[in-house]
Automatic annotation (TrEMBL):
Residues 498-575 form the DUF5921 domain. This is TF3C4 factor. It comes from Polyodon spathula. Residues 1-47 are annotated as: Disordered. Residues 55-497 form the Transcription factor IIIC 90kDa subunit N-terminal domain. Pfam families: DUF5921, TFIIIC_delta, zf-TFIIIC. Residues 672-722 form the Transcription factor IIIC putative zinc-finger domain. Signal peptide: none annotated.
Amino acid sequence: MAAASSERASTEEEPELEAAAKPEPDPWRGPGSVVKRDPEVKLQSPVSGLEPLSWSEDHRLSASSTSSISLLEIVCDLHGYGQDLVIHRTSIPVPERTCVLRVGPEKKVAEIKEIFANSKDPTVSQPFMLDRLLNPGALTPQRGFKYTSWSPLGCDSNGRCLLASLTLDNRLTIHGNLNRLQWTSLVNLTEVYGEMLEEKSYQLPGAEAPCGELEDLPEFQRRHRMQCPVRMEWSSVCTTQQVQTNNECKDVGTVLLAVLLENGDVAVWQFQLPFLGRDSIVSCNTIQSGVSAPSVLAWWEYEHSGRKMSGLIVGSSVGPVKILPVNLKAVKGYFTLRQPVVLWQETDQIPVHNIKCISLYHPYQKCSCSLVVAARGSYLFWCLLLISKAGLNVHNSHVTGLHSMPITSMTASRYGGAIYTSSADGSVKKLTPIFTDLAVMFEQELIRLPDGVAGRRAYGITTSPNGAYLALVTTEGLTNGLHPVSRSYRVQFVTLKTPDEAAAELLESSIQNLFKQADLVDLVRWKVLRDKRIPPMLQEELDEKVHTSGSTYLWRFKLFLFRVLYQSLQKAPSEARWKPSHKDSKVFIKEGGSASVSEEQMSEIIAWIEAVESHLTREHMKRVLGEVYLHTWITENTSIPTRGVCDFLMSDPTYEDRAARVLIGHIFKKMNKQTFPEYCSLCKEVLPFTDRRQAVCSNGHMWLRCVLSYQACQTLSYRRCLLQDSIARHPVPDGKDLQLPYCVGQPVLQTY
């Protein structure tokens, strides 16, 4: 394209800009890549649950405590001057009312509890009075969260992740962040499951038979144990076929939530996407695992010869681990095991604390394989599953000598297969799998934590989606062999990769999406802000790849670097922006400039930004016009300002894209001299298309333009890109508007 070549020539002469001030010392010059990132986040109450930290695919961190779940969203701020992490913090409080499981009519249950409590038989009264599950009012109720689990990306109405939480009093709830400041409870699955069991008289096919009447303590215990959640985990997004009224089949996205119950059953919930609440529940199937004293649950997902297989891994507090088949109908491309597979059968009384399943490629067998790792006491149990012509091959063993104390937390990187474990003494180890001909070995590495993190007591760890950061929830350790008088619980962040490694991964990434790699992007942003320049090697390689491939993803990465470079050369304001000034001045905004950077250099950076923005705008306008050309027979699509977009492209004399001009000619022929102008909703005047960012009518009313369709956003609610560089018009519920792909902005947007 001629336009691309002209912009290419301008970018080849981009000089490196460096500030006159002496740069700060590089924290990565020493051994290792572990550097502490500020700020630390102090929790308001002690942590609770076995795995208090969990990191979602949309870069939100949940920290469970006795009073609430603290939600920390890592925001890659384009407009900030500071080098610290930008964290947006919200919370979900613990419900005030204690959850009481439904086992029968309320009045009858109250009478039975009174009989059990006053029984003269100690084998009846003592187990009942000392069991919080059976008699939650007898003992002080436990407050806090037991476990949290994030759904895959794209499950809520905004295309983001849902959060499933389990309280210590057995309330399982799904939450959604429908706006930026508030979390909403969408459904109480404990309550729904209790209603389903009541309709079936607490008898499930193939399950444990009733132990008499409700007045008998064993039956009373059975009804509680069959609906008491232990753990829950989300599957990846599936595709089901739904029959329409015209007998056509439509593919509908669904997601599964597996809930492990205290009696060993597994309730598999199927939800239609986007999940809006109880009405989005498609089905609930209960599977008998046959595992006694279940403690942990994980999804096993394996891809072989283009076919995806799935199952559930269940671990026990007395030792055994097994995979259960999950049979689901009408799920497109879904396969499962024919029968359960036992991974570890010894009842050695070593509890299974955590399970992770990692998909890897076997370099010797030349096929994909599945690595299952489980924390058992101070050991790490591993099992390699490989499908060959002979069937399913299972190799297992234990890794010993990791920690001197039991493993308190374990996490695994989604890409690369690295496994991280921690113990109560604060030590963190990294295990990297190394394949042999038949099995696997693990290379062990002690993570040297930086000052301020080392020596603290660790309760939980988790890695960011792309392995750039490690988050730890810690408290003060021993001082001279003594415990501290008081403890403060903090969430701390350290890097696991250098900015150069993050930049290399971004350049070679197959994801082609900046938001999904925001943790890597934030590392590069930090490097540019510190050095006040783009690393020369990164800039050179990026220019080369942009010129050869023309990828929109690389153009957006380049635009991001230029914007961060511009911010790094700005002078930070001396006072907070929100703080009112006490001086009598009519100037409310102060223009800050850096004395060490000339106006010519700043103007040159602004020119680079405008050149890249112009290129991205033209390419996206072509895609919008292509959608309009293919769908002009639908009258609702005329709401797209087609004539304005065409005129905007044609008005630039330097734009000589032949394909775009041919497309515009075909559109003009189909429109047949019709213009379909936009009108201001306040004064009904025509909104001219003279700017890609905003529309201003003759009376001065200004409206921002949607980055997806270039319509004027004339509503109170709209969507903003999570990288904070574009907005989009909120889709109408009836779905009559042209739904364009989120291709210029990031694919996940938040409603305001």
